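Human: You know discrete backbone vocabularies at least as well as I do. Show me how you would write down a chain together with its backbone fold. No explanation is needed for now; the record alone will do.

Assistant:
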Amino acid sequence: MNFNDLIAKVTSCGKQRLAVAAAADDAVLEAVNEAQKMGIVEATLVGDEPAIRKMAAEIGMDLSACRIIHEPDNAAAAHIAVKLAHDGEADMYMKGLLDTKTFLKSILDKEVGLRTGQTLSHVAVFQVKGIEQLLFLTDVAFITYPTLEDKVHIIENTVAVAHACGVECPKVAPLAAVEVVNPKMPCTTDADELRKMNAEGKITGCVIDGPLSMDIAIDPEAAAHKGAQDRPAAGHADILLFPNIESGNICYKTLVHTADCENGCILTGTKVPAILTSRSDSFKTKVNSIALAAVVAARMNEQ
């Protein structure tokens, strides 16, 4: 499976409605333009209308299919855009020329935000050359030091994303430096507890196998060399659950900057998928993130 499969999947479901906060951002507009050409989204652009129109003209973007709401103040634009999602007028919510703090503040707004009562977490989906399955990395950007309870919610959020992407029973690998339980390494005891909760039916829709080291989780040959080939997720893990934000973020950036890969990212646990990209993200990453959000939104709308 790859991102082309995801785009084909969402195209078959029909266009999803995208609200962009502070949309006067040329990189974001380029990605939205591409997503519109692919038939993935129909967009509402909230922000400084003259600036949006100027940037769109510069990149050759046809705005005739877009709804534009003029609001030059970025925080106010975020309030308007998130309210569209809150009120059911948008299926996805995307950050434009807006600092992350303001974007997250709009999501957490008690009146018009996207709170659901669930823990919010970040999912980065990677298509890596040499690995046949998509990899769902979590959490690499939002929850800093997840507790055992946080990890349960992170898994639940990520399993829902994997299901939307067509992975019926994802294999979850709670990662550690070793593949055995060591009481001196709390992440291994957490991993074992998560495995037990899954076996007892307290976490469903997936198979949890941990603790696992990274090589055993994603490399069948390494798993065989270490005698772990019979473990449920060995060599073929779909979801990589990191013990903390440092390990997750380091892995994420190592893949982005050294591997032959594509990726897309969304924030989950929200009323609709939230697309939280940065200006340093590539054009392809932004488009993939929109496609990923659209697949998840289509699945949420079916339920």
About this structure: Residues 121-258 form a domain with the Isopropylmalate Dehydrogenase fold (CATH 3.40.718.10). The first strand starts at residue 16 and ends at 21. The chain has two domains: 3-116+270-302, 121-258. The first helix runs from residue 3 to 13.
